[in-house]
Automatic annotation (TrEMBL):
Residue ranges occupied by any VWFA domain in the UniProt entry: 51-230
PANTHER family: VON WILLEBRAND FACTOR A DOMAIN-CONTAINING PROTEIN 5A
Protein name: VWA domain-containing protein
Pfam family name, one: VWA_2
Residue numbers spanned by region Disordered: 423-443
Gene source species: Micromonospora zingiberis
Amino acid sequence: MDTGLEFSLEVNQNRYLPVGGTEMHAIVSITGRRQTDGDDRSPQAEPSRLAEVLVIDCSGSMADPPTKIAAARRATAAAIDALPDGVRFAVVEGTERARVIYPAEPGLAAASAENRTRAKAMVARLSAGGGTAMGSWLAAARDLLPTQPSALCHVLLLTDGINQHEGPEDLDRVLRTCVGRFVCDTRGVGDGWRPRDLTRIATVLSGTAEAVRQPAELEAGFRETIHGALAKLQPDVRIRVRTLPFARVGLLKQARPTLADLTEYADEVDERTVEFTTGSWGAERRDFHLRLDVTAPDSVQDEDRLAARVDLVVAGQVTADTAAVLVNWTDDLVKSARLDVEVSQVLGQEEVRRAINAGCDAYDQGDRIEAHAQWARAVELATAAQDESALVQLRHLVDIEPTGVVRLKPNLSRIDVNVSSVMSSQTLHPDRPTPPAQQGPTEVDRLCGACGASSPGDAGYCERCGAELDAAGTSGRAGT
């Protein structure tokens, strides 16, 4: 029996900044662990809580070549077969408008042997013809899905083309109405789609963006995506960041297992507090790159200050676990130059992906020299960082000789460029080094939520501003 998830938070950072330093980088690691009751089976939510909408691009380009629409039909049938009894679902045909092809009645149908057979019969009739308007497809999925807070809603969207029958503002307007309502995984097939369309939808709607090089690969990919959606247990987990007056959130990116910049999608709770939706969670770990823009409020050095608190909001409630992001301005260059391992790894992965995407953009614009330069740089960075997931994608774009020489692949296809651009957003969790054993007891300081200063662990009042540390929101623990 599934008993849900429990979450934990961890912050990794080098809290020291040089005097005058204005950027504090930290990695916020969130882990969801299953609350077990002795049952070792794979966790899965009650089927009645799950809702799935399959959105299939049926624009005219899906018939060029015909293998695309045929593969889409097979993949959609495989996804339907993967749905357990009781999961509510629908199938949407996407052209310049959205049309629900199953069920015939308004709303969703509960999966059963009979309903799966009926749905697959309708899918077998899908044909290519018409345009592309992804916003209308997402709006149709939104209107089909339940609104209960406990529902785990998922959309799988397949496309092969450009969103040509609506403007970017139309898509953005729909996306804003879908945030927090459902998770959307986007998939590309063929060579006519734009990587930015897939990644934007997936980023805003807390999903993943992937693509295949051959239409025949769709079936296995759809099946894997559905299995991943079925493993989710908790909808709409949110990260809340509350800053001190001298700090503000400059950036928040999901860093692992996929890269997604969430900064522009922050919801403002109050003047100093913002929240970011992260979608549905299963038993998993994700890392987030948080950058705080900070300004020293005074000339005091070598003192830990609380810059921000990070909390999780689950089912509308703030969890008990919390994490502190600290800052300590110092003129000790040894301390401020030290690189935190987690921060260094994430910054390195981001730099590799920027180089890959810059090369893809240059190649699309016909600048082969710049594309080669960017991809060669990405190979160098990924090799040094042992970033194998990036190297896998780069090997589709360039030949890497044992001597280290990097050459553009001859007759490079647009499919390879598009797929490598999208798939490079996938990142890996490197093996964590075992932390060194601490010698002797470690003093735990208390951090003032009013001014950010630290005081001894047994202090009842802040030594800087006099605030009572026992008061709600004005005490905390110093990190390392």
